[in-house]
């Protein structure tokens, strides 16, 4: 594609609005020679694509406008390896579904899908012997830690297959012959992996460009695995309006504001692209794509907001030529969140209507959807679905006459958990987590990121059956605790994240809850247990209450791990460290010494069980 832009104008267009640009000089050098750089954006066809995918597609439109050769790499092998619970056949259907959605999404923005190369990863994975050998060479150079450190998706992987994925994405740069790879800021670790290992294979280093992540509707990032956080590309107008209307955020607040995120990263950039592409030749732009502005808007308007004034003035039109102008009005409370919701929902529905039209007119797409996603999403807030299905051992309710432990389900327990702990931030004083700002903050930024995908960890809600039923038909929520750092190979686990709400402390709750976890972990299978060999308990050396509880319940002290953990910013978060000053520290980052205790199977069999039962009955 030819362009009349200068090399600097092309570079500015390629990099505008990005969060990070690594080795941009590599791109500048190609542009200076009058050549067209080759760009790649990769995605793994796993969960259903949502409107967050329009953020990178805005940049793909910029790349096309700048005259680049652009490729979308659909990582089918990557998707199978990282989400191995689905068969290769299902992944192949999802790959086709992604192609349909993304082509329709690009055309909804205003760029013909033919302007992009659509490549299925396995087409070059399986084509040459050299690709396989290069993957083996990376395996011989990289450690497991190198792979795990590439991102949250892999940091807790227990299967082998996900650890191969960073090599796949790195080698795609070489085998597709691109000059730079573009992706979200969550790809930072994968890009660093490619920058490190491709030169070790004798291949050239590529530039890497990253966009910011679109905030979700429920705080955190928009995620395919969290239905309430996203707008699906095929959501109906009524569903879009409902999701937008349910967004909550204080007026004037900017951070993690899902409505402002949609304006800043999706709607206004699309308007800008449509304005810039007007007058381009046929085949370079779809002509009937217009900015999200009213007909009477001044030239250059990117977004129009209709505000209902009093009966005399009727509706007032506010026209914005930049997002910064709109954000400033919001900061100064000249615009409210409520006033933004209707025009944003209207604009999104205009955009998605174009995608839905493509879907409705494409029989193959509709058929593939049923094969790619045979089970409906769990989108109802009232739906009770355990988040702990990934745990490496069976998860079930554990109960006696006073306490029940049931899998912690955010849609059921998060609000009550937050309401109990929010007035008592001291419960987090010795823990790396918390305090949290809202139930959504706990769910989206901790539970769905740290707990849900981790097969070595599962959380339980502690129900006090001696209290009137509240969150559970059998009693009231009294706290949480977890199995963590669990190993099926070593037949071991750890009891951690023990939080008992202040009204339930110094009662039967903690001892009975811990006792039930010990019984399930250490009792032999013949008695309904897992038959593990070791249960660990770790606590801060400054947490005397926790140490006394461990010793009272029969745990043996094994030693102290000095400077075991860092509480970043702990000084302002109410954390308690080890009381030792860090050299040249500012007092905000605190260190923790960790005391390690354990009960092993032989301790349990030689009187440990009877001791624990006695404690449970007395408390």
From TrEMBL:
Keyword line: Aminoacyl-tRNA synthetase, ATP-binding, Ligase, Nucleotide-binding, Protein biosynthesis, Transferase
InterPro entries with a match to the protein in the record: aa-tRNA-synth_Ic, Acyl_CoA_acyltransferase, GNAT_dom, Rossmann-like_a/b/a_fold, Tyr-tRNA-ligase, Tyr-tRNA_synthase
Catalytic EC class: ligase
Residue span, N-acetyltransferase domain: 402-556
Gene Ontology terms: biological process: tyrosyl-tRNA aminoacylation
Gene Ontology CC terms: cytoplasm
Catalytic activities: tRNA(Tyr) + L-tyrosine + ATP = L-tyrosyl-tRNA(Tyr) + AMP + diphosphate + H(+)
Molecular function via GO: acyltransferase activity, transferring groups other than amino-acyl groups; ATP binding; tyrosine-tRNA ligase activity
Enzyme Commission no: 6.1.1.1
Protein name: tyrosine--tRNA ligase
């Amino acid at each position: 594609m030819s362009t009349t832009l200068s090399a600097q104008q092309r570079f500015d267009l390629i990099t505008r609005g990005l969060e990070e640009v690594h080795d941009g000089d590599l791109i500048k050098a190609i542009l200076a020679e009058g050549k067209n750089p080759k760009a790649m954006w990769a995605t793994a066809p796993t969960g259903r694509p949502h409107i967050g995918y329009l953020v990178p597609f805005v940049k793909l439109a910029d790349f096309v406008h700048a005259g680049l050769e652009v490729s979308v790499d659909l990582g089918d092998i990557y998707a199978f390896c990282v989400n191995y619970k689905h068969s290769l056949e299902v992944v192949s259907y999802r790959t086709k579904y992604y192609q349909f959605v993304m082509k329709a999404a690009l055309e909804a923005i205003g760029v013909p899908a033919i302007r992009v190369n659509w490549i299925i990863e396995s087409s070059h994975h399986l084509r040459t012997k050299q690709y396989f050998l290069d993957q083996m060479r990376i395996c011989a150079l990289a450690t497991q830690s190198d792979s795990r450190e590439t991102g949250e998706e892999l940091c807790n992987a227990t299967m082998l297959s996900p650890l191969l994925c960073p090599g796949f994405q790195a080698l795609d740069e070489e085998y597709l012959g691109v000059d730079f790879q573009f992706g979200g800021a969550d790809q930072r670790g994968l890009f660093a992996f490619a920058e490190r290992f491709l030169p070790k294979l004798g291949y050239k280093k590529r530039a890497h460009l990253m966009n910011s992540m679109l905030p979700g509707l429920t705080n955190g990032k928009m995620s395919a695995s969290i239905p309430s956080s996203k707008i699906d590309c095929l959501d109906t107008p009524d569903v879009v309006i409902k999701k937008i209307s349910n967004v909550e955020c204080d007026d004037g607040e900017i951070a993690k504001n899902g409505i402002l995120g949609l304006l800043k990263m999706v709607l206004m950039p699309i308007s800008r692209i449509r304005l810039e592409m007007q007058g381009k030749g046929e085949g370079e732009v779809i002509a009937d794509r217009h900015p999200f502005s009213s007909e009477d808007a001044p030239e250059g308007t990117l977004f129009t907001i209709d505000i209902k004034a009093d009966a005399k003035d009727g509706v007032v039109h506010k026209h914005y030529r930049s997002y910064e102008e709109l954000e400033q009005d919001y900061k100064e409370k000249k615009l409210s969140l409520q006033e933004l919701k209707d025009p944003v929902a209207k604009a999104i529905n205009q955009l998605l209507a174009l995608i839905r039209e493509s879907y409705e007119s494409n029989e193959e797409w509709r058929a593939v959807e049923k094969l790619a996603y045979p089970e409906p999403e769990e989108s109802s807030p009232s739906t009770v679905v355990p988040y702990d299905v990934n745990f490496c051992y069976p998860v079930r309710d554990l109960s006696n006459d006073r306490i029940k432990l049931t899998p912690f389900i955010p849609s059921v327990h998060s609000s009550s958990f937050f309401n109990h702990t929010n007035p008592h931030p001291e419960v987090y004083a010795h823990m790396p987590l918390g305090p949290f700002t809202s139930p959504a903050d706990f769910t989206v930024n901790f539970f769905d990121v740290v707990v849900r995908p981790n097969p070595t960890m599962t959380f339980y809600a502690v129900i006090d059956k001696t209290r009137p039923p509240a969150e559970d038909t059998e009693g009231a929520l009294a706290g949480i605790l977890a199995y963590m750092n669990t190993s099926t190979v070593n037949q071991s686990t750890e009891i951690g994240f023990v939080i008992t709400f202040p009204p339930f402390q110094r009662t039967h709750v903690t001892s009975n809850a811990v006792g039930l976890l010990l019984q399930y972990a250490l009792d032999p299978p013949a008695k309904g247990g897992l038959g593990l060999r070791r249960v660990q308990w770790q606590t801060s050396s400054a947490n005397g209450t926790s140490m006394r509880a461990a010793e009272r319940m029969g745990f043996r002290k094994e030693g102290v791990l000095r400077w075991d953990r860092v509480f970043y910013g702990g000084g302002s978060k109410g954390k308690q460290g080890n009381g030792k000053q860090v050299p040249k520290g500012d007092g905000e980052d605190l260190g923790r010494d960790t005391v390690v205790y354990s009960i092993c199977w032989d301790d349990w069999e030689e009187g440990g069980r009877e001791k624990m039962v006695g404690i449970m009955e007395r408390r």
